[in-house]
């Protein structure tokens, strides 16, 4: 009998049930999408920043002091220690390899351009090189760690003899993309002109093998910029790993703090020293946490708005059914029996509307992710039961007051249609 | 009479009228808060980004020094909109004959500019030095005064703090600019400037600085500016999507509630019609009611929304969000429009039905 009442109520009042269901689905969809966006935005913006700028620097451990003023290193380029290029693929073998977005080696060398009296810096690097570690291929280089470098022309191929010429140097030498330049008796094609707004504009940028040959040091690398997605540092992150007990050390080692990633890089590359670039790491950490906090608060506002929408819709549908309540009461239905019927209907509506809304929310979150970040925002499946529970709770809360009023109303007035 | 009808209608069905008004208030409060946050986000995030340090560099051409009037010129060009910090550099020798870069700067200003520097203690007295972590291996153990020489002139400084940045600063020794000038007879070669603002503003400032200090190269630091612009764009876009969703949901909620309310009052409508009220009068009555409801909801909701935005600003950015009264007309128009639409739809439906049928309760 009870089941039939519920069934008939859904069958005969399709329009009304549909309206309430749509309201619930809409509210749940907005809530799902917002929660997904808020939990994922930190990751998305972090990745965005990491493909733009490196946050770790690996240098040789035994290196002599840098004599750098205004980005120009006054130290003789052959002076000091070097890292071994053959060790670099090991970066992909560290614990947090999937957090490492890219890395770029740099090797400066002083060279003479034919027809010019002074020396210029030739900087060897990776542009977009395919690195193989184990069975995995990984593409890395300045194009994934130095996002602000712009090239007029085309990027050189890492295996070629092509070079980029910095904008200022190109103007001084009267060179253009597509031309050629003679360095140390070798002819190099200029594939493009680089603008970076920094010292690189006075340099020649070449595949690393060219710089190694100019310097006479095959396989040498001066420093490596590493871009890694990190977790904002906390008290544990700042502790010295040497003072930790093994259990704490494991926890520290297995968290993607910038300090522990630096530690792992030092392990992977022999005789190296890895340090966070504080300007990038610290500033972006605070900005990220602000953005995350903002989205969380906005999500709260969204949840509030959708809870309100759902409860308003429920209150309206129940209010419209006072006549029905009056009839049930006149036929001898108890208050609790009637309330139970309404709550069952509300729960059914919440579950169906919630499921539909959840599916719509997934689509919505993906759309937002694609439109803004060019990558999908995935909704965690764990969210589904949580969202359903919230939907049922909000629907109940929205219906409770209306059901109470409907049940307490005198059936005579209700049946006469006087509210 | 018209007014009395309006007031009585609201008073007699206080519960329903209140719930409609409440929906209106919440919708307009949430919309106000979102619009305010959206308008203020740029300023708030720009402030956070200024911790990056300088975004414009003024560099003497060909490695020479800037004139002594360069800093006042830069400051007057800035007009208080930013911070200008002078830096001077030389390569000096330690007593063991090793080379090290020594930088002179205004310590107080540098501290404000580079809040990302990790410093154990900032020097305050003259001849105090801030030593980079890598340079400290060269100049000797911490705490012991050491001698630096440049072109046969020597200076003895006391290391009071250690500096760690992960950049080239780690290999330098920083001393006060006055000490530096007395020692080397050289002046600042670089002025680093940080100012808040859009990239157009920064380009305009770069042009002004170039004009004011023609002997120097002025350039925006692109890696800082572009990273900032990217993050700002993405965050604004996300917040816009969120605001649109929230405003749409709450508008639909108000629409549903109000439509239910007006539909519920079909008897009032029928009685008015039966008593000979003209279509214009009845429409006017319901329209006036909708406008009153929308207006009241907008005003109360606007105030509540400003409070909500201020609270979010305080919790998240530790600075209140500036109330933007320019948002109010938008919110008011939106509220009244939603209220009018939700009144017009059911009235349109009811108009076609005979009042007698409605009054009979069918």
Multimerization status: heterodimer
In total, the number of domains of chain B comes to: 2
What do the pLDDT scores of chain B average to?
A: 85
Q: DSSP helix count of chain B?
A: 12
Globular, elongated, flat, extended or rod-shaped: what is the shape of chain A? elongated
Distance between the termini of chain B: 30 Å
> Helical content of chain B, roughly?
55-70%
Unreliable stretches of chain A, pLDDT < 50, 5 or more residues? none
Tell me what you see in this structure.
- The complex is a heterodimer of chains A (419) and B (362).
- By secondary structure, chain A is an alpha+beta fold.
- Chain A is 51% helix and 19% strand.
- Chain A has 13 helices and 16 strands.
- In chain A, the strands form four sheets. In chain A, strands 1, 5, 6, 9, 10, 11, 12, 13, 15 and 16 form a ten-stranded mixed beta sheet that branches. A two-stranded antiparallel ribbon of chain A has the order 2-3. A two-stranded antiparallel sheet of chain A has the order 4-14.
- Chain A is elongated and about 105 Å long.
- The model of chain A has no long low-confidence stretch (mean pLDDT 85).
- Chain B is an alpha+beta fold and 362 residues long.
- Chain B has two domains: 2-47 and 229-359, no CATH class; 55-220, no CATH class.
- Chain B contains twelve helices and ten strands.
- A six-stranded mixed beta barrel of chain B has the order 2-3-8-5-7-6.
- In chain B, strand 6 and strand 7 form a beta hairpin.
- The radius of gyration of chain B is 34 Å and the shape is rod-shaped.
- The interface between A and B is large, with 70 and 75 residues.
Quick description:
The complex is a heterodimer of chains A (419) and B (362). Chain A has 419 residues and is of the alpha+beta class. Helix content of chain A is 51%, strand content 19%.
What keyword list fits this structure?
heterodimer, A: 419 residues, alpha+beta, two-stranded antiparallel ribbon, 16 strands, B: alpha+beta, 6-stranded mixed β-barrel, 58% helix
């Amino acid at each position: 009998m009870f089941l039939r009442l519920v069934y008939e109520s859904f069958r005969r009042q399709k329009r009304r049930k549909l309206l309430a269901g749509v309201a619930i689905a809409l509210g749940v969809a907005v809530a799902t999408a917002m929660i997904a966006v808020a939990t994922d935005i930190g990751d998305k913006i972090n990745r965005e920043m990491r493909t733009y700028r490196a946050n770790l620097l690996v240098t040789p451990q035994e290196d002599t002091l840098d004599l750098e003023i205004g980005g120009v290193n006054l130290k003789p380029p052959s002076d000091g220690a070097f890292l071994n290029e053959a060790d670099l693929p090991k970066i992909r073998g560290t614990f947090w390899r999937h957090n490492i977005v890219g890395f770029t080696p740099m090797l400066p060398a002083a060279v003479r351009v034919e027809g010019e009296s002074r020396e210029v810096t030739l900087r060897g690097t990776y542009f977009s090189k395919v690195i193989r570690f184990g069975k995995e291929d990984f593409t890395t280089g300045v194009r994934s760690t130095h996002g602000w470098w712009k090239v007029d022309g085309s990027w050189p191929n890492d295996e070629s003899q092509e070079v980029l010429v910095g904008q200022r140097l190109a103007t001084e030498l009267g060179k253009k993309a597509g031309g050629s330049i003679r360095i140390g008796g070798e002819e190099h094609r200029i594939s493009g002109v680089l603008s970076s707004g920094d010292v690189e504009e006075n340099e020649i940028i070449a595949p690393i093998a060219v710089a190694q040959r100019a310097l006479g040091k095959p396989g040498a690398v001066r420093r490596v910029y590493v871009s890694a997605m990190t977790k904002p540092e906390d008290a544990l992150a700042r502790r010295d790993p040497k003072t930790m007990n093994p259990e704490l050390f494991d926890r520290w080692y297995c968290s993607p703090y910038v300090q522990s990633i630096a530690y792992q890089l030092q392990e992977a590359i022999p005789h190296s020293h890895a340090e966070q670039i504080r300007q990038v790491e610290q500033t972006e950490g605070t900005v990220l946490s602000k953005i995350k906090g903002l989205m969380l608060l906005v999500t709260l506002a969204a949840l509030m708005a959708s809870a309100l929408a759902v409860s308003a819709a429920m209150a309206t549908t129940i209010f419209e059914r006072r006549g029905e309540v009056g009839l049930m009461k006149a036929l001898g239905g108890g208050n609790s029996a009637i309330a139970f019927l309404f709550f069952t209907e509300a729960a059914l509506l919440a579950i169906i509307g919630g499921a539909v809304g959840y599916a719509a929310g997934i689509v919505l979150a993906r759309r937002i992710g694609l439109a803004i970040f060019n990558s999908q925002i995935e909704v965690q499946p764990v969210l589904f039961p949580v969202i359903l529970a919230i939907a049922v709770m909000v629907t109940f809360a929205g219906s409770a007051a209306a059901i109470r009023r409907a049940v307490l109303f005198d059936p005579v007035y209700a049946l006469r249609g006087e509210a | 009479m018209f007014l009395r009808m309006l007031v009585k209608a609201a008073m007699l069905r206080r519960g329903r009228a209140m719930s409609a008004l409440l929906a209106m208030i919440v919708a307009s409060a949430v919309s106000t808060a979102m619009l305010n946050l959206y308008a203020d986000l740029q300023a708030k995030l720009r402030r956070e980004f200024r911790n990056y340090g300088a975004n414009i560099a003024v560099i003497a051409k060909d490695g020479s020094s800037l004139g002594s009037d360069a800093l006042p010129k830069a400051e007057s060009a800035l007009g208080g909109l930013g911070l200008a910090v002078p830096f001077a550099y030389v390569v000096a020798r330690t007593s063991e004959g090793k080379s090290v870069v020594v930088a002179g700067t205004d310590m107080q200003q540098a501290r404000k500019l580079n809040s990302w520097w990790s410093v154990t203690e900032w020097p305050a007295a003259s001849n105090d030095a801030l030593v980079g972590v890598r340079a400290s291996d060269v100049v000797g153990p911490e705490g012991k005064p050491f001698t630096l020489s440049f072109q046969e002139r020597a200076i003895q400084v006391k290391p009071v703090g250690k500096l760690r940045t992960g950049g080239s600063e780690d290999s330098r020794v920083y001393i006060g600019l006055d000490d530096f000038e007395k020692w080397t007879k050289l002046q600042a070669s670089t002025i680093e400037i940080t100012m808040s603002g859009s990239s157009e503003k920064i380009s305009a400032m770069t042009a002004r600085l170039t004009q004011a200090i023609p002997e120097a190269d002025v350039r925006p630091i692109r890696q800082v500016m572009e990273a900032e612009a990217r993050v700002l764009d993405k965050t604004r876009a996300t917040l816009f999507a969120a605001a649109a969703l929230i405003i749409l949901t709450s508008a639909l909620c108000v629409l549903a509630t109000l439509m239910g309310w007006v539909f519920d009052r079909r008897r009032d409508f029928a009685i008015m019609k039966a008593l000979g009220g003209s279509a214009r009068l009845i429409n006017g009555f319901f329209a006036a009611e909708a406008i009153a409801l929308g207006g009241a909801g907008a005003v109360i909701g606007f105030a509540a929304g400003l409070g909500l935005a201020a609270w979010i600003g305080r919790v998240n950015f530790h600075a209140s969000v500036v109330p933007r009264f320019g948002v109010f007309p938008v919110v008011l128009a939106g509220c009244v429009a939603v209220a009018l639409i939700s009144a017009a739809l059911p009235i349109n439906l009811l108009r076609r039905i005979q009042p007698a049928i409605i009054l009979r309760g069918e």
